[in-house]
Amino acid sequence: MPELIINGKTESFDPLPESVLALMKAIGLDPDATLAEVDGEIVSRAAATMRKLEPGNKIELVRFVGGG
Predict the structure, then answer these.
(1) CA 48, CA 8: separation in Å to the nearest integer?
(2) Does 46 reside within a domain?
(3) CB–CB of 4/57 below 8 Å?
(4) What is the DSSP-derived secondary structure letter of residue 60?
(5) What is the tens place of the pLDDT at every residue in 3-42?
(6) Does residue 43 lie within any of the structural domains?
(7) Please, are residues 36 and 20 in contact by the beta-carbon 8 Å criterion?
């Protein structure tokens, strides 16, 4: 089963999400409130649909939380 390393934790997927955007949706994150980095490269929101994922990618996902 294909694996990705997300925020330091190995996660298995079947099938592997095709893009960063698909990954965010698959794990229940709001793409408008999440910043992604894949293998050390920041992925813009505009590029999230085009940035393809491969087994073994190291991904950091950071959610923005508003407050006062």
Answers:
(1) 20
(2) yes
(3) yes
(4) E
(5) 999 999 999 999 999 999 999 999 999 999 999 999 999 9
(6) yes
(7) yes
